[in-house]
Write a structure and sequence with these properties.
With about 80 residues, this protein is α+β, with helices and mostly antiparallel strands. The chain has one domain: Herpes Virus-1, CATH 3.30.40. It is built from two helices and three strands; from the N terminus they run E-E-H-E-H. Strands 2-1-3 form a three-stranded antiparallel beta sheet.
Length: about 80
């Protein structure tokens, strides 16, 4: 099951479970601004591309809540 991480790994912006976010196949999670403008559509951790993170329906979010563990890329993301 997807973690639905609560923040952007680059800028640490809060990302609600239903907020626009982009992920790679390892669930590295980034806000759209960082994914496009800073990273150019390439994950800095694995080198893969990004896809839109799916939204978990409210009933399922209540039963299976999003993660509260914040993940931040060590040293931030280079432009």
């Amino acid at each position: 099951m997807m973690e639905l991480r609560p923040n952007c790994e680059c800028c640490d912006r809060d990302l609600a479970p239903d907020a626009p976010a982009l992920i790679c196949t390892f669930e590295c999670t980034f806000c759209p601004d960082c994914a496009h403008d800073v990273l150019g559509g390439i994950c800095p951790n694995c080198g893969g591309n990004f896809a839109r993170r799916p939204v978990r329906p409210p009933a399922m979010l209540a039963k299976y809540p999003a993660s509260t563990k914040r993940v931040l890329k060590q040293g931030g993301c280079a432009a």
